[in-house]
Amino acid sequence: MYSKPKLPDSIQLAHGSGGLMTRELLDEIVFTTFQNPYLEQKHDGAIVPLEGPVVISTDSFVVSPIFFRGGNIGELAVHGTVNDVAMCGGIPKFLSLSFIIEEGLPTSDFLKIVHSIKVAADASGVQIVTGDTKVVESGKGDKIFINTTGIGSPHPKGRIAMEHVTVGDQVLVSGPIAAHGMAILSEREGLEFESEIQSDTTNLNHLVDDLLQNFGPAIHLLRDPTRGGVSGVCSEIAQDSDLGVVLRETDFPIDPQVSAACEILGLDPLYVANEGILCAIVDGNDASEILSFMKGHAKGSKAACIGAIVEEHPGKVVMESSIGGKRIVTPLIGEQLPRIC
Amino acid sequence: MYSKPKLPDSIQLAHGSGGLMTRELLDEIVFTTFQNPYLEQKHDGAIVPLEGPVVISTDSFVVSPIFFRGGNIGELAVHGTVNDVAMCGGIPKFLSLSFIIEEGLPTSDFLKIVHSIKVAADASGVQIVTGDTKVVESGKGDKIFINTTGIGSPHPKGRIAMEHVTVGDQVLVSGPIAAHGMAILSEREGLEFESEIQSDTTNLNHLVDDLLQNFGPAIHLLRDPTRGGVSGVCSEIAQDSDLGVVLRETDFPIDPQVSAACEILGLDPLYVANEGILCAIVDGNDASEILSFMKGHAKGSKAACIGAIVEEHPGKVVMESSIGGKRIVTPLIGEQLPRIC
User: Fold this and answer.
1) pLDDT: is B34 or B19 the higher one?
2) What is the largest CA-CA distance in chain A?
3) pLDDT tens string B46-82
4) What percent of chain A has pLDDT over 90?
5) How far apart are the CA of A322 and the nearest CA of chain B, in angstroms?
């Protein structure tokens, strides 16, 4: 009934107006891609079937560049939040999706990102049920920022809590470290490596589901070592549990290309962000069985046991180096690599 | 155990690192302000008690300027999402809170905003249970963007759905229109009015709760006329219900200062954003009783009946003007006032 403007080649300020152009953008790209009964309520929100209690987690993604080897900001935004819900021992079910777009973003880039979100959401078993789109003037944002908030249900066999971490627990990682941060860095201007390091961005909720299903209370704590890396996660665990963490440098799984890139740039891979691995603090008695299980899982084939929880040096992380020395691992203080997620 | 850096005068890139400085910022400002048992889980998410089904809504706020007469981006971010949950017939209970801060934001501004969020959340009866903080380089954002995602439960007496809108329904607004958009505009450079128009930003969930409690199924649809204004909401209703909407210009409540400012700037108040009023489409038989109830409510003292749902001109909104004419109200196509929320 009203003449519908055709989608232009780039996103315009008017696409965030809440008027006809916003609706056009949503109808042609967002609703078409994600169609489901919840979005079709076309409320300012959605009513979804979910038994309580509810696990909720939120993340805003500002990664730069928005496209990188191994992924883009769209799938990262799905995986990041899906993984955070999983790390709380939750089974993620529904996501909200909110865009802050800088005027001028090519519509084709937006389409690619939305498509990646759909593929990642489907693979993770979550539905996009409500959303929001804002557009800011050129120079007031950076291409696109994405917020996702995930809700889900606690896993019936999950007993994840800091207070379950105890002396004798083993520290497992589900895969090689530092890939995401180095992939982002290698994309940035002036830091192109000849090798093609790929981000490890992926969902971990199915792995967590399977781990909890099989080992339930033996999984004491789960964390995904994103910003701050494995060091950040271990420092938090040491501080919050008031126990010590010992790590063994030689046992860390790391891709040789990633390791070489870290060395060239003088970065410690322990501090570099990951987006597709988890740290699990597990009961010492079940650790080897859990590790075998992880290694047999599609998302954990290169898993390793990298350390243990100890009584000594409470609140501190100590690294046993490859040449036999020991050093205290301090948490990252400031910024190592800005905007990696 | 580690020497703690003191909070500097402005937010730095390192505050988004996920390292010690992020934790410092969160501990000193965010956790201290919002303290509750859910945040203290210090997971990457929260587990909250909520019976299903779950109402969920999300909004990213990019309003410029971030401080304006009558409010700031912080309380706006609470009210906006709380109201969206309420408009779906939900009782909002919990909010996630995610910041994208531009490096250089004065820490005192951040503190003020966080404080406003706390006050608004308390007044709205919701708790901030999980969050995220990202920092982008100077020039890659605009001071601060905030995403909130709200979850809650459907009101037991709510029967809100587009399919309940029917011929004979009356269109009520809970207060004077166009205040928020004009307050924002009047703050912007070069558009200072002598009058001090205030944003109407406020929570509407208690009003909705009381309306549903007392009139349940007679409330057919609720919408908050934010971006796109009352015109946007009415156009959507006409299109989605395939019925006509008649509005009476003389019956619109509007503050004389707001009206004057609209006239000076050539803006139609019907398209200007509101952040503290709702449009209710209610059963014609109960409309006058519902209107009286609204007028007796703290959040609806200036409520008015502004129109009706009719069989004629399906899909269209027709305005009966003050001088007796009729005109079709088209929805806003593009951008009237960018970044008002």
Assistant:
1) B34
2) 76
3) 999 998 899 999 999 999 999 999 999 999 999 999 9
4) 83
5) 25
User: Is it the case that residue A40 has pLDDT exceeding 50?
Assistant: yes
The model's pTM is 0.96
Per-residue model confidence (pLDDT) at position A322: 83
Q: Does the CB of B36 have a partner CB in chain A at under 8 Å?
A: no
Q: Is the CB of residue B168 less than 8 Å from the CB of residue B284? A: yes
Q: Which residues of A touch B98 (CB under 8 A)?
A: 58-60, 147, 149
| SS3 annotation, chain B | CCCCCCCCCECCHHHHCCCHHHHHHHHHHHHHHHCCCCHHHCCCCEEECCCCCEEEEEEEECCCCCEECCEEHHHHHHHHHHHHHHHCCEEEEEEEEEEEEECCCEHHHHHHHHHHHHHHHHHHCCEEEEEEEEEECCCCCCCEEEEEEEEEEECCCCCCCHHHCCCCCEEEECCCCCHHHHHHHHHCCCCCCCCCCCCCCCCCHHHHHHHHHHHHHHEEEEECCCCCHHHHHHHHHHHHHCCEEEEEHHHCCCCHHHHHHHHHHCCCHHHCCCCCCCEEEECCCCHHHHHHHHHCCCCCCCCEEEEEEECCCCCCEEEECCCCCEEEECCCCCCCCCCCC
Out of A26-30, A38-42, A224-228, which region has the weakest mean confidence (pLDDT)?
A38-42
B29 vs A: CB within 8 A:
no
Distance in angstroms (rounded) separating the CA atoms of residues A201 and A219? 23
CA A195 from centre of chain: 24
Percentage of chain B lying above the pLDDT 70 cut: 96
The identity of residue B182, as a single letter, is: M
Q: Which domains does chain B have, with CATH numbers?
A: 13-154 (3.30.1330.10), 162-329 (3.90.650.10)
Question: How many C-beta neighbours within 10 Å does residue A294 have?
Answer: 25
Confidence of residue A1 (pLDDT cuts 50, 70, 90): very low
Residues of B in contact with A12 (CB under 8 A): 334-335
Q: Cβ separation of A100 and B62 shorter than 8 Å?
A: yes
Which residues are B173's β-sheet partners? B279, B304
Which residues pair with residue B68 across a beta bridge?
Answer: B71
* Alpha-carbon gap: A301 to the closest alpha carbon of chain B (Å): 25
Say if A332 is an interface residue toward chain B (CB within 8 Å): yes
Structure tokens at B205: 């969930």
